[in-house]
Predict the structure.
Amino acid sequence: MKFKRNELSLYIYLVTVVGLALLIIWTVNIDISWETGKAFLFWATLVFIAELFSVSLPYGGSVTLAFPIIYATLITQGPVMGVWVVSCGALTELKKGKNADVKKILFNCGQFTISVSGAWLAYKYTGGMVIRSPDAAHIVPLICAATSYFVLNSFIVSTVVALEKKSSVFDMWSNNFRWAMPNYLAQTPLGFLMAMVYYQISWWAVTFIMFPLFVVYWAYKLYMDMRKEHLSVIQALATAVEARDPYTEKHSQRMANYATETARELGCSIYNAEVIRYAAILHDIGKIGVSDTILSKDDSFSKEDWNKIRRHSTIGGEILSQVGGSFTEVSRIVYHHHERYNGSGYPAKIQGESIPLGSRIIAVVDAYDAMTSHRPYREALSKEKAIKELKKHAGTQFDGKVVEAFLKVLKRDAT
Ligand SMILES: [Fe+2]
Protein backbone atom coordinates (compact mmCIF):
# COMPACT_ATOMS: atom_id res chain seq x y z
CA MET A 1 0.00 0.00 0.00
CA LYS A 2 1.48 3.37 -1.01
CA PHE A 3 0.41 6.78 0.19
CA LYS A 4 0.14 10.34 -1.09
CA ARG A 5 1.93 13.30 0.48
CA ASN A 6 -1.13 14.99 2.06
CA GLU A 7 -1.94 11.72 3.88
CA LEU A 8 1.27 12.24 5.92
CA SER A 9 -0.04 15.46 7.52
CA LEU A 10 -3.41 13.83 8.16
CA TYR A 11 -1.75 10.82 9.82
CA ILE A 12 0.52 13.00 12.02
CA TYR A 13 -2.53 15.06 13.02
CA LEU A 14 -4.60 11.93 13.79
CA VAL A 15 -1.90 10.26 15.96
CA THR A 16 -1.31 13.54 17.83
CA VAL A 17 -5.02 14.14 18.51
CA VAL A 18 -5.78 10.51 19.53
CA GLY A 19 -2.67 10.40 21.76
CA LEU A 20 -3.39 13.71 23.48
CA ALA A 21 -7.06 12.73 23.96
CA LEU A 22 -5.91 9.49 25.65
CA LEU A 23 -3.53 11.51 27.84
CA ILE A 24 -6.42 13.67 29.03
CA ILE A 25 -8.74 10.66 29.56
CA TRP A 26 -6.14 8.84 31.69
CA THR A 27 -5.33 12.01 33.65
CA VAL A 28 -8.92 12.22 34.92
CA ASN A 29 -7.99 9.34 37.26
CA ILE A 30 -4.74 10.92 38.48
CA ASP A 31 -3.79 10.27 42.09
CA ILE A 32 -1.56 13.06 43.38
CA SER A 33 0.48 12.24 46.49
CA TRP A 34 4.03 12.73 47.72
CA GLU A 35 4.79 9.05 46.94
CA THR A 36 3.49 9.19 43.33
CA GLY A 37 5.24 12.56 42.84
CA LYS A 38 8.60 11.04 43.82
CA ALA A 39 8.04 7.96 41.66
CA PHE A 40 7.06 10.18 38.69
CA LEU A 41 10.16 12.33 39.05
CA PHE A 42 12.39 9.26 39.20
CA TRP A 43 10.96 7.33 36.23
CA ALA A 44 10.47 10.46 34.09
CA THR A 45 14.14 11.44 34.61
CA LEU A 46 15.29 7.94 33.61
CA VAL A 47 13.11 7.95 30.46
CA PHE A 48 14.35 11.43 29.54
CA ILE A 49 18.01 10.32 29.89
CA ALA A 50 17.35 7.09 27.94
CA GLU A 51 15.65 8.99 25.11
CA LEU A 52 18.79 11.14 24.74
CA PHE A 53 20.65 7.97 23.65
CA SER A 54 18.98 7.25 20.35
CA VAL A 55 20.33 5.34 17.36
CA SER A 56 19.06 6.33 13.89
CA LEU A 57 17.64 3.45 11.87
CA PRO A 58 18.80 2.99 8.24
CA TYR A 59 15.48 3.93 6.63
CA GLY A 60 14.23 6.58 9.07
CA GLY A 61 13.09 6.64 12.68
CA SER A 62 15.25 5.65 15.66
CA VAL A 63 15.51 3.28 18.64
CA THR A 64 16.33 4.30 22.21
CA LEU A 65 16.93 2.71 25.61
CA ALA A 66 13.61 3.88 27.04
CA PHE A 67 11.56 0.69 26.58
CA PRO A 68 12.48 -1.19 29.85
CA ILE A 69 11.98 2.00 31.88
CA ILE A 70 8.56 2.69 30.31
CA TYR A 71 7.67 -0.96 30.90
CA ALA A 72 8.74 -0.84 34.56
CA THR A 73 6.69 2.34 35.10
CA LEU A 74 3.60 0.82 33.47
CA ILE A 75 3.52 -2.41 35.48
CA THR A 76 4.29 -0.80 38.84
CA GLN A 77 2.48 2.54 38.53
CA GLY A 78 -0.33 1.88 36.06
CA PRO A 79 -1.34 3.70 32.87
CA VAL A 80 -1.75 7.27 34.21
CA MET A 81 1.87 7.60 35.27
CA GLY A 82 2.89 5.44 32.28
CA VAL A 83 1.53 7.96 29.74
CA TRP A 84 2.95 10.97 31.60
CA VAL A 85 6.40 9.45 32.05
CA VAL A 86 6.54 8.43 28.39
CA SER A 87 5.43 11.93 27.32
CA CYS A 88 8.47 13.33 29.15
CA GLY A 89 10.61 11.23 26.77
CA ALA A 90 9.11 13.15 23.83
CA LEU A 91 10.54 16.38 25.32
CA THR A 92 14.12 15.35 24.41
CA GLU A 93 13.48 17.13 21.08
CA LEU A 94 13.94 20.34 23.12
CA LYS A 95 17.71 19.62 23.22
CA LYS A 96 17.76 21.12 19.69
CA GLY A 97 16.92 24.51 21.23
CA LYS A 98 15.50 26.91 18.65
CA ASN A 99 15.42 24.14 16.03
CA ALA A 100 13.15 21.92 18.14
CA ASP A 101 10.11 20.79 16.14
CA VAL A 102 6.93 21.27 18.21
CA LYS A 103 4.95 19.11 15.74
CA LYS A 104 7.44 16.27 16.31
CA ILE A 105 7.17 16.62 20.12
CA LEU A 106 3.36 16.42 19.93
CA PHE A 107 3.44 13.48 17.48
CA ASN A 108 5.93 11.56 19.65
CA CYS A 109 3.88 12.34 22.73
CA GLY A 110 0.79 11.02 20.87
CA GLN A 111 2.42 7.86 19.56
CA PHE A 112 4.00 7.03 22.95
CA THR A 113 0.65 7.55 24.70
CA ILE A 114 -1.17 5.28 22.20
CA SER A 115 1.53 2.56 22.58
CA VAL A 116 1.46 2.71 26.41
CA SER A 117 -2.36 2.73 26.48
CA GLY A 118 -2.50 -0.31 24.16
CA ALA A 119 0.13 -2.11 26.26
CA TRP A 120 -1.83 -1.41 29.46
CA LEU A 121 -5.11 -2.69 27.94
CA ALA A 122 -3.35 -5.88 26.72
CA TYR A 123 -1.84 -6.27 30.20
CA LYS A 124 -5.08 -5.67 32.08
CA TYR A 125 -7.30 -7.89 29.89
CA THR A 126 -4.90 -10.83 30.17
CA GLY A 127 -5.10 -10.65 33.98
CA GLY A 128 -2.31 -8.20 34.81
CA MET A 129 -2.49 -5.65 37.66
CA VAL A 130 -0.25 -3.00 39.23
CA ILE A 131 2.53 -5.01 40.90
CA ARG A 132 5.01 -4.07 43.57
CA SER A 133 6.35 -7.49 44.50
CA PRO A 134 7.34 -10.57 42.45
CA ASP A 135 4.46 -12.67 43.94
CA ALA A 136 1.87 -10.54 42.13
CA ALA A 137 3.55 -10.99 38.71
CA HIS A 138 2.15 -13.32 36.03
CA ILE A 139 4.06 -14.27 32.91
CA VAL A 140 1.27 -14.08 30.27
CA PRO A 141 0.16 -10.45 30.92
CA LEU A 142 3.82 -9.38 31.25
CA ILE A 143 4.61 -10.79 27.78
CA CYS A 144 1.39 -9.38 26.29
CA ALA A 145 2.19 -5.86 27.55
CA ALA A 146 5.72 -5.92 26.09
CA THR A 147 4.59 -7.34 22.72
CA SER A 148 1.71 -4.85 22.38
CA TYR A 149 3.98 -1.91 23.14
CA PHE A 150 6.54 -3.05 20.55
CA VAL A 151 3.95 -3.79 17.84
CA LEU A 152 2.04 -0.49 18.32
CA ASN A 153 5.14 1.67 18.65
CA SER A 154 6.98 0.14 15.68
CA PHE A 155 3.92 0.22 13.38
CA ILE A 156 3.03 3.84 14.24
CA VAL A 157 6.63 4.93 13.51
CA SER A 158 6.88 2.69 10.39
CA THR A 159 3.69 4.26 9.01
CA VAL A 160 4.95 7.81 9.39
CA VAL A 161 8.31 6.93 7.75
CA ALA A 162 6.53 4.99 4.96
CA LEU A 163 4.25 7.98 4.29
CA GLU A 164 7.26 10.29 4.21
CA LYS A 165 9.23 8.03 1.83
CA LYS A 166 6.15 6.93 -0.16
CA SER A 167 6.86 3.30 0.63
CA SER A 168 4.81 0.38 1.99
CA VAL A 169 4.24 0.24 5.78
CA PHE A 170 4.95 -3.47 6.12
CA ASP A 171 8.09 -3.22 3.99
CA MET A 172 9.31 -0.34 6.17
CA TRP A 173 8.49 -2.25 9.37
CA SER A 174 10.11 -5.42 8.09
CA ASN A 175 13.38 -3.67 7.14
CA ASN A 176 13.58 -1.20 10.01
CA PHE A 177 12.10 -2.96 13.04
CA ARG A 178 11.77 -6.72 12.51
CA TRP A 179 15.43 -7.28 13.39
CA ALA A 180 14.93 -5.23 16.59
CA MET A 181 12.01 -7.37 17.87
CA PRO A 182 14.12 -10.02 19.72
CA ASN A 183 16.22 -7.17 21.09
CA TYR A 184 13.14 -5.38 22.46
CA LEU A 185 11.71 -8.57 23.95
CA ALA A 186 15.09 -9.37 25.51
CA GLN A 187 14.90 -6.01 27.31
CA THR A 188 11.56 -6.97 28.91
CA PRO A 189 13.14 -8.93 31.84
CA LEU A 190 15.38 -5.88 32.46
CA GLY A 191 12.25 -3.73 32.79
CA PHE A 192 10.70 -6.24 35.19
CA LEU A 193 13.92 -6.35 37.19
CA MET A 194 14.00 -2.54 37.41
CA ALA A 195 10.44 -2.50 38.73
CA MET A 196 11.15 -5.12 41.41
CA VAL A 197 14.47 -3.58 42.47
CA TYR A 198 12.73 -0.17 42.86
CA TYR A 199 10.28 -1.58 45.42
CA GLN A 200 12.32 -4.39 46.99
CA ILE A 201 15.63 -2.52 47.40
CA SER A 202 15.62 1.21 46.56
CA TRP A 203 15.56 3.72 43.71
CA TRP A 204 19.38 4.02 43.61
CA ALA A 205 19.74 0.26 42.93
CA VAL A 206 17.73 0.73 39.69
CA THR A 207 20.52 2.88 38.30
CA PHE A 208 22.79 -0.24 38.38
CA ILE A 209 20.49 -1.84 35.77
CA MET A 210 21.08 1.18 33.51
CA PHE A 211 24.61 -0.16 32.87
CA PRO A 212 23.57 -3.29 30.88
CA LEU A 213 21.16 -0.97 29.05
CA PHE A 214 24.05 1.19 27.92
CA VAL A 215 25.76 -1.99 26.65
CA VAL A 216 22.63 -2.63 24.54
CA TYR A 217 22.85 0.96 23.25
CA TRP A 218 26.50 0.51 22.21
CA ALA A 219 25.57 -2.76 20.44
CA TYR A 220 22.85 -0.93 18.45
CA LYS A 221 25.21 1.94 17.67
CA LEU A 222 28.06 -0.37 16.67
CA TYR A 223 25.77 -2.28 14.30
CA MET A 224 24.60 0.95 12.60
CA ASP A 225 28.14 2.39 12.41
CA MET A 226 29.43 -0.86 10.87
CA ARG A 227 26.61 -0.75 8.32
CA LYS A 228 27.66 2.80 7.31
CA GLU A 229 31.33 1.78 7.10
CA HIS A 230 30.37 -1.27 5.03
CA LEU A 231 28.71 1.03 2.46
CA SER A 232 31.72 3.39 2.47
CA VAL A 233 34.10 0.46 1.77
CA ILE A 234 31.90 -0.61 -1.15
CA GLN A 235 31.92 2.95 -2.51
CA ALA A 236 35.72 3.18 -2.06
CA LEU A 237 36.17 -0.05 -4.05
CA ALA A 238 34.00 1.31 -6.87
CA THR A 239 35.95 4.62 -6.86
CA ALA A 240 39.21 2.63 -7.11
CA VAL A 241 37.89 0.88 -10.24
CA GLU A 242 36.67 4.16 -11.74
CA ALA A 243 40.06 5.80 -11.10
CA ARG A 244 41.60 3.34 -13.58
CA ASP A 245 39.00 4.11 -16.24
CA PRO A 246 38.68 7.92 -16.63
CA TYR A 247 35.67 7.65 -18.93
CA THR A 248 33.46 6.07 -16.31
CA GLU A 249 33.84 8.69 -13.57
CA LYS A 250 30.80 8.80 -11.22
CA HIS A 251 29.28 6.02 -13.35
CA SER A 252 28.74 3.67 -10.37
CA GLN A 253 26.96 6.35 -8.31
CA ARG A 254 24.53 7.15 -11.14
CA MET A 255 24.06 3.43 -11.71
CA ALA A 256 23.34 2.82 -8.03
CA ASN A 257 20.63 5.49 -7.87
CA TYR A 258 18.89 4.47 -11.09
CA ALA A 259 19.12 0.71 -10.30
CA THR A 260 17.69 1.15 -6.78
CA GLU A 261 14.78 3.30 -8.02
CA THR A 262 14.03 0.85 -10.86
CA ALA A 263 14.07 -2.09 -8.42
CA ARG A 264 11.61 -0.28 -6.14
CA GLU A 265 9.45 0.60 -9.17
CA LEU A 266 9.34 -3.14 -9.97
CA GLY A 267 8.07 -3.86 -6.43
CA CYS A 268 11.33 -5.13 -4.85
CA SER A 269 11.51 -4.89 -1.04
CA ILE A 270 13.84 -2.31 0.53
CA TYR A 271 16.29 -5.14 1.37
CA ASN A 272 16.37 -6.55 -2.19
CA ALA A 273 16.66 -3.04 -3.65
CA GLU A 274 19.66 -2.49 -1.38
CA VAL A 275 21.31 -5.72 -2.57
CA ILE A 276 20.80 -4.48 -6.16
CA ARG A 277 22.25 -1.10 -5.14
CA TYR A 278 25.45 -2.79 -3.90
CA ALA A 279 25.66 -4.84 -7.10
CA ALA A 280 25.15 -1.69 -9.22
CA ILE A 281 27.96 0.13 -7.38
CA LEU A 282 30.33 -2.83 -7.81
CA HIS A 283 29.16 -4.25 -11.14
CA ASP A 284 32.42 -3.42 -12.94
CA ILE A 285 34.81 -4.32 -10.09
CA GLY A 286 36.13 -7.17 -12.27
CA LYS A 287 37.84 -4.53 -14.45
CA ILE A 288 40.61 -4.74 -11.84
CA GLY A 289 41.58 -7.90 -13.75
CA VAL A 290 41.72 -6.12 -17.14
CA SER A 291 44.98 -4.41 -18.12
CA ASP A 292 45.26 -0.59 -18.13
CA THR A 293 46.47 -0.64 -21.77
CA ILE A 294 43.13 -2.05 -22.89
CA LEU A 295 40.95 0.08 -20.60
CA SER A 296 42.61 3.36 -21.65
CA LYS A 297 42.61 2.60 -25.39
CA ASP A 298 41.27 5.50 -27.49
CA ASP A 299 40.76 3.55 -30.70
CA SER A 300 38.58 0.54 -31.40
CA PHE A 301 39.14 -2.73 -29.55
CA SER A 302 40.41 -5.91 -31.24
CA LYS A 303 38.57 -9.23 -30.86
CA GLU A 304 41.20 -10.28 -28.33
CA ASP A 305 40.69 -7.05 -26.34
CA TRP A 306 36.93 -7.67 -26.21
CA ASN A 307 37.48 -11.21 -24.96
CA LYS A 308 39.65 -9.83 -22.14
CA ILE A 309 37.13 -7.08 -21.31
CA ARG A 310 34.31 -9.64 -21.27
CA ARG A 311 36.09 -11.56 -18.54
CA HIS A 312 35.34 -8.69 -16.08
CA SER A 313 31.87 -9.97 -15.11
CA THR A 314 33.27 -13.43 -14.24
CA ILE A 315 36.20 -11.90 -12.33
CA GLY A 316 33.84 -9.50 -10.50
CA GLY A 317 31.49 -12.35 -9.52
CA GLU A 318 34.45 -14.40 -8.24
CA ILE A 319 35.89 -11.50 -6.19
CA LEU A 320 32.55 -10.72 -4.52
CA SER A 321 31.74 -14.38 -3.82
CA GLN A 322 34.71 -14.33 -1.36
CA VAL A 323 32.77 -11.92 0.90
CA GLY A 324 29.95 -14.42 1.57
CA GLY A 325 26.73 -13.60 3.50
CA SER A 326 24.40 -11.16 1.72
CA PHE A 327 27.14 -10.69 -0.90
CA THR A 328 26.42 -14.15 -2.36
CA GLU A 329 23.45 -12.56 -4.17
CA VAL A 330 25.46 -9.41 -5.04
CA SER A 331 28.12 -11.68 -6.58
CA ARG A 332 25.47 -13.60 -8.61
CA ILE A 333 24.00 -10.33 -9.95
CA VAL A 334 27.45 -8.98 -10.91
CA TYR A 335 28.41 -12.31 -12.57
CA HIS A 336 25.33 -12.14 -14.86
CA HIS A 337 25.16 -8.36 -15.53
CA HIS A 338 26.09 -8.80 -19.23
CA GLU A 339 23.55 -11.56 -20.00
CA ARG A 340 20.93 -10.67 -22.59
CA TYR A 341 17.22 -11.37 -22.27
CA ASN A 342 17.27 -13.53 -25.43
CA GLY A 343 20.28 -15.56 -24.24
CA SER A 344 22.88 -13.96 -26.54
CA GLY A 345 24.87 -12.33 -23.71
CA TYR A 346 27.74 -13.59 -21.56
CA PRO A 347 29.20 -15.36 -19.55
CA ALA A 348 26.52 -18.08 -18.94
CA LYS A 349 24.25 -17.27 -21.95
CA ILE A 350 21.15 -17.76 -19.81
CA GLN A 351 17.92 -16.05 -20.84
CA GLY A 352 14.62 -14.51 -19.66
CA GLU A 353 13.63 -14.78 -16.00
CA SER A 354 16.53 -17.16 -15.26
CA ILE A 355 18.78 -14.07 -15.34
CA PRO A 356 18.69 -12.52 -11.82
CA LEU A 357 16.39 -9.45 -11.74
CA GLY A 358 19.26 -7.29 -10.42
CA SER A 359 21.39 -8.26 -13.46
CA ARG A 360 18.51 -7.42 -15.84
CA ILE A 361 18.12 -4.02 -14.14
CA ILE A 362 21.87 -3.29 -14.27
CA ALA A 363 21.95 -4.26 -17.99
CA VAL A 364 19.34 -1.58 -18.82
CA VAL A 365 20.71 1.16 -16.56
CA ASP A 366 24.32 0.46 -17.63
CA ALA A 367 23.41 0.65 -21.33
CA TYR A 368 21.53 3.94 -20.84
CA ASP A 369 24.38 5.50 -18.86
CA ALA A 370 26.98 4.32 -21.39
CA MET A 371 24.94 5.67 -24.35
CA THR A 372 24.41 9.09 -22.73
CA SER A 373 28.08 9.45 -21.65
CA HIS A 374 30.89 10.78 -23.81
CA ARG A 375 33.53 8.29 -25.01
CA PRO A 376 36.78 9.10 -26.91
CA TYR A 377 35.58 7.05 -29.89
CA ARG A 378 32.02 8.51 -30.07
CA GLU A 379 29.86 11.41 -28.94
CA ALA A 380 27.25 10.99 -26.20
CA LEU A 381 23.76 10.16 -27.46
CA SER A 382 20.86 12.44 -26.55
CA LYS A 383 18.48 11.20 -23.83
CA GLU A 384 15.71 10.75 -26.43
CA LYS A 385 17.92 8.66 -28.75
CA ALA A 386 19.10 6.48 -25.84
CA ILE A 387 15.49 5.85 -24.76
CA LYS A 388 14.63 4.94 -28.37
CA GLU A 389 17.48 2.39 -28.36
CA LEU A 390 16.29 0.84 -25.07
CA LYS A 391 12.75 0.50 -26.46
CA LYS A 392 14.09 -0.97 -29.71
CA HIS A 393 15.95 -3.72 -27.85
CA ALA A 394 13.27 -4.39 -25.19
CA GLY A 395 12.34 -8.07 -25.27
CA THR A 396 15.57 -9.08 -27.07
CA GLN A 397 18.63 -7.57 -25.39
CA PHE A 398 16.71 -6.18 -22.39
CA ASP A 399 13.78 -7.31 -20.26
CA GLY A 400 10.77 -5.27 -21.50
CA LYS A 401 9.32 -4.91 -17.96
CA VAL A 402 12.61 -3.51 -16.67
CA VAL A 403 12.89 -1.03 -19.57
CA GLU A 404 9.32 0.14 -18.84
CA ALA A 405 10.06 0.60 -15.11
CA PHE A 406 13.34 2.41 -15.84
CA LEU A 407 11.62 4.82 -18.25
CA LYS A 408 9.10 5.64 -15.51
CA VAL A 409 12.00 6.40 -13.13
CA LEU A 410 13.65 8.65 -15.75
CA LYS A 411 10.37 10.49 -16.34
CA ARG A 412 9.83 10.97 -12.60
CA ASP A 413 13.39 12.29 -12.13
CA ALA A 414 12.94 14.76 -14.97
CA THR A 415 9.86 16.36 -13.34
FE1 LIG B 1 30.19 -4.43 -17.09
